Amino acid sequence: MSDSDRPEPPRRGTPSPADPDAGGRWWEQSRPDNPSAPGPDHGLTIGQAFRRAMLGLALIGTAAVIAIAIFIGYCAYTLPLSKPPAPDAPQAATLFATENGQTLAARGVYHGDPLNAEQLPKDLVNAVVAIEDRRFYEHGAIDPRGIFRAALRDLVGGGAVEGGSTITQQLARVAYLSQERSIRRKVQELMLAFWLESRLSKKEILARYLNSVYFGAGAYGADAAAKRYFGKPASQLNLAQSVMLAGLIRAPSQLAPNHNPDAAKKRAELVIQAMVDAGSIDQRRAAELRLQPTALAVPPEAEPGENYFIDTADAEVKRVVGAVPLDLTVATTLDVKLQQAAEHTIEKWLDGEGARRHVGQAALVAMAPDGAILAMVGGRDYKASQFNRVTQAHRQPGSLFKVIVYLAALNNGYTPDSVLVDQPVQIGDWEPKNYENRYRGPVNLRTAFADSINTISAQLVQAIGVDKVIALAKSVGVQSQLDPVPSIALGTDPVTLIEMARVVDAIAIDSKSVEPYLVRKVAGPNGQPLYTRPDTAREPPPWDRTGLMRLLEAVVQEGTGKAAQLPGRRAAGKTGTTQEYRDAWFVGFTTDIVVGVWVGNDDNSPTDGVAGGDIPAKIWRDFVTDAERILAAPKSQPAAAPPVAATSARPPETAPDSASGSGQPEKPTADAAETVSGVPKVVDTGTLVINGTTVHLSGVQGEAGDLARNLARYIRRRRVSCTPVSPDTDQYRCLLGDFDLAEAVLLNGGGHAAANAPDRLHNAEQNAQAAHRGLWRHAD
Predict the structure, then answer these.
(1) pLDDT of 31-56, one tens digit each?
(2) DSSP conformation letters of 171-228
């Protein structure tokens, strides 16, 4: 057979059709244990594929390492090492107080003196290290053991239960980095921690940390916090105060004792236990600390209603002294009792008749004759709206503006007995109408003003001239834009309540103008005077006050403001009502006080027929009745507000760091069977804590929650005097002024009368049930 006739031999790996076992041999050639044989569909051996996969993984790993190196380099390159470890120019703090020294509120950022590394307060350092980083002196920049422990607890707890950051890491975070939550910030935090540990001693790290960390209530740094909460530098803190400050670092806004004393106390107990575990104190000292109250140098945060006043006073401070980089103390004009009376009156009328007649908002301002603002209610709820309706709301005054129109008339030869004709009037395209859409014919100005006749006011403006009316308005304190149109006679241009109160105050004291003010004095951090309100001489006005008083008194005696009458007391004022009853006003005065009231709705919707002689005049009457009584009472002159207990435990009888500094208990204990008095902390509506003594109102089963908060608002920084009902008891009868506090609680549905309570308390409870107050609001 020739070579050309021979069958072509099969190729390697290809079965021969003539060989029945070729398929098997092919499988043997290509199975995994024959690495030199390729598979049927692949051009690579298994070894080649493996080597290629390893090469790919190596390339990916190298790329990842390079990317990580680049990222770390970027983090290192962008480290903010040039940033100082403390705020550059902290905003000054301002402490607002009444004229007699009772603290009202604090605004701004407190900053104290930097702590020196060699003079760190030992108690504060021990407390901070115990609760924040117990192994601080043993580890470096990071604490692996702490990180593992925190991770384990977080895993068991199912969330972020414990943090593992060291104090050095925390210093890096608060002093150099932003609050951004990112991997980059965490990497930079670690880099900065190692950098700080390499160049600073442990004491220096602690000093910088305590100078930088936030303690709540606007206080940055330990010295600022000590001054903010306790009125002393950090070097003078006692152990109990140091414990409280150390506890604030973890969550300062939530734990700040000026607004959450209970949470601050619970956190302080954790710090005490941490110090025991760290060996800083023994169990005996811990027990003493748990019983020792920590008195604050300032009361809790300002009541929400007072914040309208504080906001306005803060703006006035900036106007009279500028933006000075100093902590300031401001003596204001606020009368706390008048403020409370104003808020109570507004709340009563808005929740009662106001709610039924679609009145959503109200504002009130009370001024002394010289312009000192004694009380200011800028709205029904400061938390819901900080918009001040006394100073910021521009609303149409309606007939209240006729005060200025008639002032101008008296300046131009008219008298209260001058007669004009009440009849249809047309001035250009404008045809003013009277309220009742009828005309009386000839009337004198006294009657026209008392009954607020619109056509007479329009005729006066036409006769006098719009320009003269506007000029007079500006001279007596109206700063809002006034358009030179005839309808100004009926108060169509929006003004503010404070402007109209200024106008009426000028009439009340017979002065050309009055400047309202809220700030009497401003002092620097060491008491140095920076500003004192100057005495202003009364400037004789260009009008006849006698004639003007006849007009204003007629409004209250027989006109549209009869609801403002005070029994046996002269009063004068003017009502104002706008179209569709969108705004209702009453501004009036007695010899002691000038008060302006506005009611309406923020969305300018109509009320249900509320005129100025209706709810505003009634609010004015009720408030002025209370104000006259308050102003007539003897004035106390305390040097400062009494301390406010930040804990509810009774102090040891010889606590060396009591508020008095005498080493004696501030008040007798309950066992002494003596009167306990002071500003209380409300635990529930039947339990008070007064200077560390727990007082139970005799005959009252107390309630917590909203009812307790309502009682705290009712008492609000006023002193309560409590006497034990018998020796060896914690049951007391407490008086708030002349009022029995237990009876007041039950009368307002704040609790239940105990089974053994006297009849007067059971009667008070029944009264609250019948009126559906408090607990009984939803009772059938």
Answers:
(1) 444 444 444 444 668 877 777 777 77
(2) HHHHHH--S--SHHHHHHHHHHHHHHHHHS-HHHHHHHHHHHSB-STTEESHHHHHHH
